[in-house]
């Protein structure tokens, strides 16, 4: 049986921690930043965990999945 391949697009967007959590960056930080409040931009710098509903789908795209 051949090895499972990692989807490269997913590998660039997600990270798996030692405990098995999948982390992602927050959305809405690419453009039109002038009109967004400083507080909102600061809070969106942090990474957050992937939602439970998306967890299985994202994990299957990464090498640690299956």
UniProtKB/TrEMBL annotation:
- The UniProt record lists the keyword S-adenosyl-L-methionine: no
The organism is: candidate division WOR-1 bacterium RIFCSPLOWO2_02_FULL_46_20
This entry's Gene Ontology molecular function terms read: structural constituent of ribosome
The answer, when asked if Zinc is one of the entry's keywords, is no
One Gene Ontology CC term in the entry: cytosolic large ribosomal subunit
Record-given protein name: Large ribosomal subunit protein bL35
Q: Which keywords fit this entry according to its UniProt record?
A: Ribonucleoprotein, Ribosomal protein
Question: Which Gene3D superfamilies would you find in this protein's record?
Answer: 4.10.410.60
One GO BP annotation is:
translation
Family per similarity comment: Belongs to the bacterial ribosomal protein bL35 family.
């Amino acid at each position: 049986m051949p090895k499972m391949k990692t989807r490269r697009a997913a590998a660039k967007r997600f990270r798996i921690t030692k405990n098995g959590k999948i982390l992602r960056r927050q959305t809405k930080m690419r453009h039109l930043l002038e009109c967004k409040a400083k507080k909102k931009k600061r809070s969106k710098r942090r990474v957050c965990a992937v939602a439970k509903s998306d967890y299985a789908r994202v994990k299957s795209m990464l090498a640690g999945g299956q």
